[in-house]
């Protein structure tokens, strides 16, 4: 409010000197000055990643990563603010500063990296595009979808992937696309479409929980892609990319070293090796180089846990979805996730 | 009606009551001829059948509480979904423990609207004070930090409270803007006049949702960062501009009803432009424009539903979320009816009030 | 009088200052906005310009009147969006106007049952937001089930959760669009020629029918029947005209809502016709139908046309709610293009200019129509 009052008073003169104010933009500094972190939410629920629970609170893997980042920067996981955004709105919202970062099942593409002026963190998740179809149609692969209707979410990479894949395998079809995941799901369940293209993990989650009879739906064998999922940030702030990357790295290192939210204080009091000591801020260096507190990773792990805890809570064993970790395990356990070297 | 041929006997008989007149007309036109009777029977039968089927589904065969949800079947409404999820529909993602604030805030806005319907309030200053007070009450309660309550930022506002907030903010901000545009449009200064004409005509030709989308998504690119503000305020500003452009035309109608002579009379008395305007002309303009203004306010309330497209968690979006889980997915009809009923009650009653005022003013001008 | 001269001079000066300030402020605001946009685009490293219009989109959407593929350019896809918007807008303008006159006349009727039915209709559909009605209707329709559970109407037309299947003329969609335009041109021609209402309608109906059948004969694929009738094959219906459920839901909801509004406009117009004129008609022994078509409607039109024109513009704008139910109207295509190409400013500019052009055209048409009808009185 005040912002507007003050703004309107000096609108005329200041319009003429428009961009002195953010010549030295630094996202982390802005977040610290503001005292809150602005993260992307969803207009509805995207199960397992961004969802609203019965108490009207945001939860999910992506929300937990945002909470982790908030703790790292501000020292308190609750100092974040989730801004509900549709898929189509996420990049404009990031560019305009409505959010500081997009952690929202967002794939790393060349177009986004270059033309949209974004930059991406290390991938924290891998998932491919697949189709799910009504079981009573008796189909097992995308080729059988000929003549059918396929639903997708508008403005996503999946939309283009599905369209070009179906063209490649020469399947004639109708396509309907929706602006939100909830709408897409209810349209599919209402039998508006024979199949819907989605991101594998999300399909599995939907099938496991959102449907009365999981057997009545099949996930088709075609694997359209494997997408690296990363946090997206505005270009021109390398420091912020470093912060996000090391936030993710710290979560993975914690998992490798067996540091959990339960034993983090114990480990800090009695670090098993120099790597743990450095990670938990027992030895200095971790914070200074990022312009933050030395103990940021310790606080973060205490607040949200390591990567395995976050995964299990939202997608894995402790969630209703019971999703296998598969590719999204540490490299040492047959997955593709790894952390850069903490020296 | 001619009053000349009243006989002494007729004076003794009480005039027919409004009910009797209505009944007379009902019988005369509804059952006066075989064709009329046939039409009456068919239409009333259809209307009755629709009403009966609806009541049968919505009331007689309905399940009301969330505990009895297993009894929900094909033949009756399952209002359990409302019982279980009404808080989500009404308050969106607002923190659960703070819902009392959201309730009070919504009541403040409703009370403001109701109070503005009292003729005693129909003075520009009183209305302005009332709306500013009502709006401030809402904001202080919802935001909370100034009252020492836990802070809830606008991103956490949702449901019916958010709809009411958008509505009140748009009307409060749009009304003075509309008046400003109307005055500019009447100006004798050509540049000022054309400025207003271009703005008014442009925004009236654009769909509201494009204006709001632009305000939400595109505008930040044009603004220096200190002027960007929250998304919700940008959208409210865009919406208010839209409202103002329509309201300016309503005011213009009000101005046209006032004889030019009044301005000249005021000038002859030695009053300046602003005194003539505020003391003589504007009170009359407001009076003439009142029914159309109420109409605009009603339309605005209805149009707030469009913000769901640009990702706000208004009552429509929160309603969708309410049946967005596997348990409640089959009961979308109940949720939509609930939301529709809320809108309908607000809009219908305000609309009827507008009609009533219009009738009363037409009577007083005769 | 010197004082008056001084005053006049002073007020002239003041006017100059006010207008000058307004011009300067406007220029400053525009310049500030443009330089900010330039700065932001460079800062965010976003490309600008219209060259993206020639690039392929790579995505698909629910409805198009003309041939489309995912290799179409952005320019072509936006054109399809525009056609869809115009198509839905025109259909709704026609349906709401027709139904609006019917319901409005019923609202004006003395018969209590007829009046009640119309009143109930208007009060329900006018007092609920259009977008809610559209989403609600769409939800109900898509729950009707797939093609195999379709409701059949005499085995030639079907309604399912996927869409409405109608028997159709065996010609290409593009040819059908041209036919529609010709039919519309005929309407304009009849209005220009000042043909009387009923005769005009008859000429239009017969003309369109003959034209349609002729086109069907000439343009159908060699050796195939004049009409195609939908039939269930595999996952979907083949043959006939398939109206996707999104299009159907959008048209029906805008029609239901717009009809209620136009009905009120018509009722207002009819109720303003002086009673004396109606009584004069009765005295001449005219039937009720003739009184309606020859006295009430022509008289009422003068007060109906201007608000009716506004309502038509509203209908065009209302097509933008298509995005809420997955219908590919111009706004939907624009928003999707924005998220797929990132060219926000260019696309929003195109969208706004297009709507300004459409709605100014309707306003000009209404003014022209009004002038036509006014002249006829004298």
Can you tell me about this structure?
The complex is a heterotrimer of chains A (343), B (366) and C (378). Helices cover 36% and strands 14% of the residues of chain A. Chain A has 343 residues and is α/β, with parallel strands linked by helices. Chain A has a five-stranded mixed beta sheet with strand order 9-8-10-7-11. In chain A, strands 1-4 form a two-stranded parallel sheet. In chain A, strands 2-3 form a two-stranded antiparallel ribbon. In chain A, a hairpin with a 5-residue loop joins β2 (51-52) and β3. The longest helix of chain A is centred in the last third of the chain and has 20 residues, at 238-257. The N and C termini of chain A lie far apart (46 Å). Chain B is mainly alpha-helical. Chain B has one domain (89-365): MetI-like (MetI-like fold, Orthogonal Bundle), CATH 1.10.3720.10. Chain B has helices at residues 8-12, 18-31, 34-60, 80-91, 99-116, 124-143, 159-186, 190-205, 208-222, 231-256, 261-268, 273-303, 315-322, 332-365. The longest helix of chain B has 34 residues, at 332-365. Chain B starts with 7 loop residues before the first helix and ends with a helix. By secondary structure, chain C is of the alpha+beta class. In chain C, α2 packs antiparallel against α9. Chain C has helices at residues 2-43, 74-108, 112-126, 130-142, 173-192, 197-219, 245-271, 275-283, 288-318, 330-341, 344-376, and strands at residues 151-153, 157-160, 163-166, 168-169, 227-228, 231-233, 236-238, 241-244. In chain C, the strands form three sheets. Chain C has a four-stranded antiparallel beta sheet with strand order 1-2-3-8. Chain C is built from eleven helices and eight strands. Classes of the chains: A alpha/beta (343), B mainly alpha (366), C alpha+beta (378).
Brief overview:
The complex is a heterotrimer of chains A (343), B (366) and C (378). Chain B is an all-alpha fold and 366 residues long.
